[in-house]
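WARN no homologs supplied; continuing
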Amino acid sequence: MFEGCYTALITPFSGGSVDYGSLARCIEFQIANGVSGVVPCGTTGESATLSEDEHREVIEFTIRTVKGRIKVLAGTGSNCTETSIRLTRHARAAGADGALLITPYYNKPTQEGLYQHYRTVAEACDIPIVLYNVPGRTSVNLLPETVARLAADCKNIVGLKDATGSLAQASETLERIGNREFDLLSGEDGIVLPILSIGGKGVISVFSNIAPRSMSDLVSAWNAGDLAGARALHLSHLDLCRCLFIETNPVPVKTAASVLGYCREDLRLPLVPMGSANKQRLFASMKAFGLPVREVE
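OK structure emitted
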């Protein structure tokens, strides 16, 4: 259901407001360069600083702009179960193809709490749901046994974005899922090829905001049986992948997108612009990768 390269979209801002003109340009750039789908209102989209009205509007705008040409997997997670239900129902009504739900953050629920949270949302919302596990952000780890239990008990829980960075955990998740259809997606740009090699279906990518064709080609090469081609792309991505995370995501990728002319560098507090040394390191990596770096206006 969700296979290939999905871009975790940045949310462009201008003067403190969402810059919908730039968001449209970003979406069209993604479509033109072969991605399978886009993910509005995820971590990379600074969802934590969007108001609920903005959250809804960004999802609606993305769906209207895409016009069915690729899939839209809307970020609708929250640390409040009722809010997650409200946002997920909205995404379904707006026409999203699925919903990406981050584990509740700050509350630090137990595994039973995580299970009950996701099951409650799944039962309340008739839309395909992809779980999102990023313990480095949320301070909770959605364990393989809990993922397998949810996949068995909730027919509309269809996948997992695994941003643990652990191939062992991702492998155990698939082991426990067994033969059921389930879409494992890498949440780490630097290990897309290893995730594919254990049975993953693709990636939800930060990197593809600025190089969508290359990340899409990596997944396509693997699917075509071109291991050498996939490996060459994987290795060519690594330095830029590292540089896109030398400061908190999405600060580096939004900085990179700004020098490519897709948006302004504007961030919402408490995120602040990159330090000059890190910025120069990022720009050098972009140039080495072959991206046309220009000065920010």
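The chain has one domain: 4-230.
OK
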